[in-house]
Amino acid sequence: MEIRNFSIIAHIDHGKSTLADRLLEVTSTVDKRHMKEQVLDSMELERERGITIKMTPVRMEYKAKDGTPYILNLIDTPGHIDFSYEVSRSLRAVEGTLLLVDSTQGVQAQTLTTLGMAKETGLTIIPVITKIDSPLAQIEEVKDEIVEMLHCGRDEILSVSGKTGEGVKELIEEIIIKVPAPKSEYVPDTGNQTRALIFDFEYSNHMGVILYVRVLDGNIKAGDTLLFTQSKSKFIIREVGTFSPEKKEKKIVNAGEIGYIVTGIKEPGIARVGDTVTTHNKPLPAFPGYSEPVPIVFASVYPESQDEFDDLRSSLLKLKLSDSSLTFEEESSGALGRGFRCGFLGMLHLEIITERLRREFDQELVVTTPSITYEVTLKNGEVEMVYTPIHFPDHGQYISVREPWILLTIITPHDYVSPLMQLFPPHEATVADLADWGHDRVRIQLHMPLRELMRNFFNEVKSASSGYASMVYEKGEMKPADVTRLDVYVAEERVTAFSRVIPEYRTQEESEEVVEKLEKILPREMFRVKIQAYVRGRIVASRSIAPMKKDVTGYMYGGDITRKMKLREKQKKGKDRMQREGKVHISHNTFLKMMQPGEK
Predict the structure, then answer these.
(1) C-beta of residue 452 within 8 angstroms of C-beta of residue 458
(2) Residue among 336, 349, 346 at smallest CA distance from 300
(3) How confident is the model at residue 600 (pLDDT cuts 50, 70, 90)?
(4) Which CATH architecture is the domain 297-367 placed in?
(5) Is 360 helix (H, G, I), strand (E, B) or coil?
């Protein structure tokens, strides 16, 4: 049978999963009685948010107009920039892609980024306009945008409706004609050499790690011994099969096909996205382009109760078995106890992981404020990578600090350019390019520090543009940073959990915010409690909580006034001693309130 491997790339909410549903329906891969919306989005979180988090492959069988039977392998990829590495590897597993553009919204920022990856990979690109049944559809205008972007003919753009199924059969015929059949890039010396690219994997408690692979050379079958080229680990295949869309066991999966391998491995860190598995005794060269996912956002995760610490460790290990890009290491905070410092690919990745820990593993978590990695050059010439404020050196111990910057692209209607422009200076963003995108839209490109992106920038942009702006960012170079460490002292004692790295120009503002918030949250003590924000060794902001009052003479009646004076003098000495030696116990609840940005 002829094979066609393809993927779908589109911006969030452009109808990618809905079109996938219609493809499954037209090819009779899923019975009508079993059909539901977002068939390929199996995770509860995906269905709830309407976004694709985990890529999902599916094998469809279809008989073309001329009667030739075809195997169509679709990989439904996530669209968010945080998962761009996984998308880039899945694009290497196919020969063609459908570029989906919503006829009611036009080309969006995320579409451009993924399209760039597809062009670099050399894929055949088939432009498709969706939601043509919508009364808001602007088909001709959107076609103009696609022609300008791809330099293709208007007649090459297909029109479909994922809702009604209009144009889907014609789309399948076009895939068969335009997408090339898979071919091997490497010719083995003998027929028993195998090589397959891992584009994703999952973890099963019973079967261990299950690899999602595109077989490049040879074939795979149960009983074969394969080798991971990166971790150099060997394993015996327990089971192989294809997706339809649930797993379907097969005796053999041949070159050019997409399938799964049950490895039986139950250790984290062995399987990695982008790695190659090959014959262990006559290994073929690894498929090029593998790289380790690099975390760019860090946050500490603590269990609400220290009794749950071991459960949290177990949950993170299980999660890492299905998401190799998650990194974590144990750390300890005097106030919050033991927890884990975790590295994420971006803010959405952080949100998804913490939500999965809560839902899938029933974990109650305390998540600290996200931070980024700083490159600090110390006075002795050593260069340190600092990813937590606690390890950021004191003022005077370092020569310079560098931080990562990003290139951010925003596409927005003309009416919202002015409100958006007002957001950029407070976030240190500089406009690199401003171009008319046609049909009442503007493309703005910005250079800005990554740390500012985490300071509620996405929400501010969505608010200023009434939700019409679309954004995408890519990591840029490291640049000099004018930042410093803010420390918080409560009763003359530094609380490391409240330390943060802040820009110099926001020193006063951030210091005032943190001491005011603590003043409202901390309970009163028997002595005056000072709350101080220190920057560069000096107090920038200060508040004090008045002590609780106790009338030590309240029980007395009558008698000489000197008796009352003696008691008051004794109380005064006790208060002075408490002021000098008193400790403030900061409750777990106080830390929780401080972590919540909306709590004042």
Answers:
(1) no
(2) 336
(3) very low
(4) 2-Layer Sandwich (3.30)
(5) helix
Token pair of 458, please?
């996405």
The token duo for 385 is: 């990578």
Exposed / middle / buried, residue 82 (Cβ in 10 Å: 0-12, 13-18, 19+): buried
pTM: predicted TM-score of the whole model, two decimal places? 0.76
Tens of pLDDT, residue by residue over 8-34, are 888 766 677 788 888 888 888 776 545
In the chain, which segments carry CATH 3.30.70.2570? 484-595
What is the architecture of the domain spanning 195-279? Beta Barrel (2.40)
User: Using one digit for the tens of pLDDT, what is the confidence trace for 326-359?
Assistant: 889 898 876 677 889 898 888 778 888 888 888 8
Angle between helical axes of 168-178 and 16-26 (0-180°, round to 10): 90
User: Which of 254, 124, 226 has the alpha carbon at shortest distance from 177?
Assistant: 124
Residues of the chain with CATH 3.30.70.870: 297-367
C-alpha distances out from residue 554 to 412, 549, 557, 558, Å: 69, 12, 8, 11
Q: Give the whole-angstrom CA distance, residue 291 versus residue 528.
A: 55
Query: How many CA atoms lie within 13 Å of 506's alpha carbon, on the beta-carbon side?
Result: 19
**Distance from the first to the final alpha carbon of the chain:** 65
Widest CA span in the chain: 116
